[in-house]
Structures are given as structure tokens and as C-alpha cells.
Amino acid sequence: MAASQEKVGFENVEAADSDHAGNKGAPISADDFGFTPEEQKKIIRHVDRRLVLTVGAMYCVSLMDRTNLGAANIAGMGVDLMLIGNRYSIISLVFFVTYIVFQPPSTVIVRKIGPRIHLAVIAILWGGVMIGMGFVKNWEQMAATRVLLGFLEADEVGKRNSIFYLVGCVASAFAGILAYGLMQMAGLAGLNGWRWIFIIEGIMTVLLGIVGYWLLVDFPDAKRQNWSFLGVREREWICARVHADRGDVKPQPFSLAKYMRAGTDIKVWAYAMIFFNTTTVTYALAYFLPIILTHNMGFSVGASQCLVAPPYAFAGIIMYLTGWAGDKYRLRGPIILFNALLCIIGLPIMGFHSSPAVRYFGVFLVTAGANANVPAAMSYQANNIRGQWKRAFCSATFVSFGGIGGIAGSLVFRNEDAPGYKPGLYACIATTLLTMILVGILTLDFRRLNGKADRGERELECDADDTYEPGFRYTY
């Protein structure tokens, strides 16, 4: 019964799209459903609870892995696997090779088979690889498992983005404390404590993947979708709202020409570069913060693992507040600039002050600014592109550049630069300054283009059908 209702409901949307107001191709408006603002908020909350938190929980496992690689290193992995020279950096960065290579086709694959099966299977396989990481015998085997994780990771607005990554920040904050607790299992079954970090977290991930299969939903346009937690009219309204916001609620036949045409827009590459700058800093912190706390600031191994938590908890607060402010005041660029400013202030404090306590305060600012800019950058590009295949291309370049930032972040803090790590600090400062410059340039360009659109001199951003919608304006 539910399946037949879903089919009828979405056929109604398509019929309305074809003949709304007597204009073929004109989409039905979300306002036509008669929901009050309170009812609309209630529907969105239903979707957020089901989708954002479930996917956010899955994202947690990848963030916990990234954070706990550093925790495992200082807990004995570096000694057991003989991570001398740049071996730790190699283990960190090989993850991103397959991540970058396989991410672009993944944006097409997930549209074909649906995110429900896609993400659930990936989470289960991810957990299996994590468990295997607990049994590796040498650093080459660890590097191989990281390559597999990169392949699996490749297959995965505003306040909502912030909530999504807020869950990730909570995971990062909890991960160090969890790692410290799992270290106490050292000797159990003849395994060192760092191995139990990967084994237990891997088991948790497998279980999450199984549960995720039942909680995740497919795209609202898909025939296989399982949106029974909403009524028919509510689902129709969701589709109309997505179409009004993105212009791509109905899937279009894949077109390589349309997909590649997005690469001619220089703004797409600017968004990607902003994300590269951001992830360079976030991955550098994720992989090296426990090591910096130990070698640079003089904290013990146990203290370093636990002291990772407060900066990430603070980052979660800043992330949510800036996401809320961005949505309320329709701001994107200024939010990125504010977060970048926190990094610019925090990095010199973290790197050059004489007091370890003050340097640790700098860690709070850098961690908050860098991590809060992840959802801020995503919202920035999401608000300023339209069309299914341009969005797919932009997503692929965006995430791929984020992966390249991960490679850079894996290399900026080198063993030979310890304990000061000054070259790494300079690199993080440079990337943050570049983000501020790019946002400034884009803001000026958005104002110029919006002005032309207001004067009727040009239209902005095609939707999936290669048609323009006169009301679209860039958000800056």
C-alpha cells in the first residue's frame, strides 16, 4: 500500500511539473501545497532526524579513523610498525590517492543505485578494513589498508550542513578519549592497545552500516525510495522544494557534455580551491594534533589523547553558531572569512608562544576555524550552483580537491621539523590567507553578476534542463 502511494504521489509531482499553470516544464511551487510555516518546519525536522543524523553518524566513523591514526601512533603503533622517517606521512596520504581517483565516478554511481544500499555496504566494508588494521604486521600492510579505506571513502545547507559536521566534531572530540580507554586493553589476546583502537571501532562501524541500511532513504525521486515516514503530500512538497532550490529533483539522462561543461566555469574551481585550503588544515590537525601535543607542548601520551577532545567540542559550537548565523542573515562569504580569521589568529599562538597552555589555547581557535569552514564552504558552493550534472561535477571536484588537501595536510608537519613544526604552520597560514583572498574575489564577482541580472542584462545558472530561472541570484 505504501509503495503504491509513493508511486502515485511522485507521479503527481511529475504531472504537475509538466502542466503547472498551463506552462509545460514549469515546476510546481512548494507554496502550492498549503502547508503553514510551522508544518513546513515540522516536515524538515522529520527529514533531518532521519537523514542528516544517520548519514552524520556514518561520517563519524571516518572522522574517528582520521583522528585516531595520530592517537594510535603515539600509543605504540609508531614503534610496533617502525614508522621512522616519513612512513607515518605515507600511511596518512595513501588514503587520498584512491579517494581522489574513485570519487568522481561515485557521484554517478550513487545516483544509479541509490544512497541507501551504497552507503550501508560501504560502511560495512569500511568497518571490515578497520578491523583488519588492528592485525597488520608492518607499515606496508597498514598502508595497503589505508588505500582500501580511500576507495571506500570515495563512495559516500547552512545550518543543516553544520549539524551534519557537528556530529563529526563530536566524534572527533570523543575519539581521543575512546582511544585512551581502548589503550587500556593492551595485552588482551596478546594485542597492543593501539590495535584494539582499530578493532573495536571497526566492529562499531560494521554494526552502524547494518543499522544504516534500515534508517537511510534513497533520493525522493527514486522508484526504490522508502520515504514512508512522510505522507504523500509531504513527500510531494519535499520534491517541489528541492526542485525550487536546486532545479534537479527529477533525474536526467547522463550527459558527458553537460557534466564536463561545468568545468568551464572558473567559480567551480574557486570553490574547490577553498575546500583544498580548508582540508589542508583540518587533516593536518586530525593526523598530527596528538603528536604535536606530545612532542611540541610536552603533554603525556594519555593527556594528549584526552586533550584532543575540548578543541573539537569548541569547534562544534562555533560550527553550529556560524551555520545558524549564515542561514538567518543569508550570509556565506563572511562566515568563511570569520572562521579563517580564527585560524589566522590561532596558528601563530599555537606555534610560537612560549607557554604550552597558551599554545593549547591557539589549538582551540585553529581547530574551530578550520573545521567550521568545512560545512561553511560546502554551503557556499551549494547555494551558488544549479543543475544536476553541474552539481555532480562540482561535488566531484570539490571533494577531490578536499582529498588533495588531505595529502597536503599529511605532509605539512614533518618529523624533521619537530618540535616547532614551523614549515607546517607557515603552510597552514598561507592556505588560510588564500581562502580569504578567493572569497573576496568571488564576492566582488557575485555582486557584479547579480547586478547584471537585476538590470535584465543576463540570466544566471542553468538548471538541469538547460533553462534559466530569472529569480536566481548568487549568495555571498
From TrEMBL:
One of its GO terms (molecular function) is transmembrane transporter activity. The chain crosses the membrane at residues 88-105, 117-136, 163-182, 194-216, 268-293, 299-323, 335-354, 360-380, 392-412, 424-446. It is found in: Membrane. GO terms for cellular component: membrane. Keywords: Membrane, Transmembrane, Transmembrane helix, Transport. Gene3D superfamilies: MFS general substrate transporter like domains. The keyword Transport applies. The keyword Transport applies. InterPro entries: MFS, MFS_trans_sf. Pfam families: MFS_1. It is a multi-pass membrane protein. PANTHER family: MAJOR FACILITATOR SUPERFAMILY (MFS) PROFILE DOMAIN-CONTAINING PROTEIN-RELATED, PERMEASE-RELATED. This is Phthalate transporter. It comes from Staphylotrichum longicolle. The lineage of its organism: Eukaryota, Fungi, Dikarya, Ascomycota, Pezizomycotina.
